[in-house]
Amino acid sequence: MKTDLFDYELPRELIAAHPPARREDARLLVLDRATGGLSHRAITDLTTLLRPTDLLVVNDSRVVPARLHVRRVATGALVELLLLERLRPTDTVAGADTDTWRVMARPARKLKVGEDIELPGGGPRGRVLGEPTASERDIAFATADILPWLEKLGEIPLPPYIVQRRRETENNEEHAVRFDTPEDRERYQTVYAAAPGSVAAPTAGLHFSNDLLTKLEAMGVQRAAVTLHVGAGTFKPVETEEVSDHVMHSERFVISPETAAAVNTARGAGRRVVAVGTTAVRSLESAADDQGIVIPGEYETRLMITPGYSFKAVDALLTNFHLPKSTLLMLVSAFAGRGNVLAAYHEAVTEKYRFFSYGDAMLIG
């Protein structure tokens, strides 16, 4: 299957640089995957589009302010780090408890194994332990938990396309150094975010306000959560000519016994399981056996869902609009049919929907 089959034209002005005024102000394109029929609605219409018997499955991972500006102790030169994934504990920095992370460094070329870096504002030092790739480093920070320091010193790691659109459209000198804003601290985060660990938001969930969730609960819609920490690999484009040649990034996730029971009970009763976002889909499908029974546990998945895949655990999907040639667009195409999805995207472009993380959404059922 050719990667070019998942390409589409998107005017840059349709890339959303900021969220709407309110979470539930987004538009909603509804796609009937059986017929290909489309209707133009709003997120607030979920109170009529969802069924009282539905089970919503969300991803409750919390985005951490994972972008840091640090200094090399030896030279004083600035380095930008994006913390990607927590690694196993080590005890290598000054004999103290350490918190070890794989990071993306820029520039990385001169950051060598054994070198020390220091955080601003009296934060802990770190030591480079490894060079897994040309752009990545494994760094042990001299603290048992770096997350509180990230909350003080880090930046929200906004997707590159948001940063670029702000560069293109806003005359803001601060963007030369920093791209997140106080608004991003709140809005690039779901209202139900709980477990810290993501470097990108599970964006379909950004549309839910507490008020909308309360209304859905009052209708009878149930909610369960998985925890999948979204990594930077979610933005990695498919650069191979053939889809099958793409190396899928790995993501860790957890499905609790309560969530597994809720999903299995719903499916056993013929009720719909509505996944909120592609991360919820990958979690449920990765944990489901051949009979569609979801098994609780802690997992690591490289599941790449493309057309031809047989879904076992998900009946409907709420999702944002995704980048051309991305694995996320391929997943949505597998769920609803490539022709249906590309026709829906063409309609969304024509009607000037807002695209990507801070953009509008689709409901596919």
Architecture overview:
This protein is an alpha/beta fold and 365 residues long. It folds into 2 domains: 3-63 and 184-364, QueA-like, CATH 3.40.1780; 67-153, Thrombin, subunit H. 22% of the residues lie in helices and 25% in strands. The protein has 9 helices and 17 strands. It has helices at 46-49, 147-153, 160-169, 182-187, 210-219, 257-268, 278-287, 327-336, 338-350; strands at residues 27-31, 38-42, 55-59, 61-63, 67-72, 78-86, 99-106, 116-118, 125-130, 136-141, 195-198, 222-228, 251-255, 273-276, 297-301, 316-320, 361-364. A 9-stranded mixed β-sheet has the order 2-1-17-16-14-3-12-13-15, covered by helices on one side. It has a 6-stranded antiparallel β-barrel with strand order 5-6-7-10-9-8. α8 (327-336) packs across α9 (338-350). The radius of gyration is 21 Å and the shape is globular.
Query: How many E-type strands?
Result: 17
What profile does the largest beta sheet have? 9 strands, mixed
Please state the CA-atom Rg, rounded to the nearest Å: 21 Å
- Share of helical residues: 10-25%
Instruction: Please name the CATH architecture of the largest domain.
Output: 3-Layer(aba) Sandwich
| Weakly predicted, low-confidence segments | none
Strand residue content: 15-25%
Q: Round the mean pLDDT to the nearest integer and report it.
A: 93
Order of helices and strands: EEHEEEEEEEEHHHEHEEHEHEEHHE
Tell me, briefly, the overall form.
globular
How far apart the termini lie comes to 25 Å
DSSP helical segment count: 9
